[in-house]
Amino acid sequence: VKWKGKDLFDLVCRTLGLRETWFFGLQYTIKDTVAWLKMDKKVLDHDVPTEEPVTFHFLAKFYPENAEEELVQEITQHLFFLQVKKQILDEKIYCPPEASVLLASYAVQAKYGDYDPNVHKRGFLAQEELLPKRVINLYQMTPEMWEERITAWYAEHRGRARDEAEMEYLKIAQDLEMYGVNYFAIRNKKGTELLLGVDALGLHIYDPDNRLTPKISFPWNEIRNISYSDKEFTIKPLDKKIDVFKFNSSKLRVNKLILQLCIGNHDLFMRRRKADSLEVQQMKAQAREEKARKQMERQRLAREKQMREEAERTRDELERRLMQLKEEATMANEALMRSEETADLLAEKAQITEEEAKLLAQKAAEAEQEMQRIKATAIRTEEEKRLMEQKVLEAEMLALKMAEESERRAKEADQLKQDLQEARESERRAKQKLLEITSKSSYTSMNSSTTALPTDLPSFNLISESLSFDFKDTDMKRLSMEIEKEKVEYMEKSKHLQEQLNELKTEIEALKLKERETALDILHNENASRGNSKHNTIKKPQAQGRRPICI
């Protein structure tokens, strides 16, 4: 009950491990007006809602000019990333369609890590809220078409850690015109309705229909005094030749909130242009060491992953080769069996042919004997002689046929013997090839055992592994050179980033539904055609020779 706002705020910061507390605050809503918890006032003395429990929102109250230079802690970057992403999706910050796709790809990288086509298959973003509804409704594109374009950019972010992807998101978002601007409805002396914008660079006056381009801007370094009396608010420029700007707000509570934001933004504006405090220097040194440690850890893990992948590829190749050798051995065995069967058949056929040849030779010899016997027989009469001569002629012809058939059978037996010899030679070669394949298989097994993962390869079980690093000068110099190299590469990439955005814009332009364009879409296109941006419509403050502002 006695706690002040600072007690509650410090408890939240300690719970989060947050040290860059000056960007944040506890917000609540009272009578449709946003208010922030005051640090030096008791919590229950504020005009907080009476219902219980009392709800506060822990949010960024002030925004950095340059997120990469000013946000030191990773938790600070993460909280800004979550808040800015929600504001873009809720359309509190206007974001053009092509930039929305790029930002969505970094949000996916931050959540899912590196793109893996085997894991991140078609439809894996179906349940994710990644684009403002205004962008989705503006084009005749299906969710699958949006996912395809987001995934194409997501695949290019490979190798970025979560904190790096979130920082890239913030670096793009901080160039959006409505980033970090708090808008308030006001009226000038003539009663004209206007909008007052308060951000890290100064105060800006907008037309109610155009929140992108301010009509007038007052950078913090050109404001001499800010004050209010009841509902009237006064801005006195440093240059006395410029008229004092006065306006009225709807409520006194709004003027108090405006002045509170002005004081905080002005304090941070002046702090940025001074040397860092000892606390900030220590935080930045710790952040650099932590970043270096994480960089070395990522490099070590990348090397281990590469070694593991190479070892797995080698193993797969050896397994594939082993399977191939097994298939070759099986085929050789089958060929050997077929050769053996063929040789047996040929041997059997050769034996039969040889027996037939012997039988024919025997018959030929018997015929010859018969012919000799007939010749030796005395023929008494001419008729017997004629008949005998005819029989002799027939016997001679039969003997000749028998001789020819015997010769043919002998040649066939020789040919079968030659075929048998060739079959046995083929069998011998098949056995030799089988022996060679068997020896290769055993050799491959020995190689696969010798090419297994080395025993000293670091384990991927990071839970039980204790990490320690000694930061030597050579390591830090090498790391600095690598970081510098990364900066150069990033500058080269950033050159074609705008080209990529323009390509995407051109690609989806044909699918745009002109009748669904909002006023902000039209204003953004006009600014883009004129070459206007957030930074060239606001006069940039200089770091030197500034007088302090009395607020």
TrEMBL record:
Start and end residues of each FERM domain: 1-273
GO MF annotations, alphabetized: actin binding
Location of region: Disordered: 409-429, 526-551
Pfam families registered for this protein in UniProt: ERM_C, ERM_helical, FERM_C, FERM_M, FERM_N
Keywords for the protein's UniProt record, in alphabetical order: Cell membrane, Coiled coil, Membrane
Compartments, as annotated in UniProt: Cell membrane
Name the UniProt record assigns to this protein: Neurofibromin 2
Organism of provenance: Anas zonorhyncha
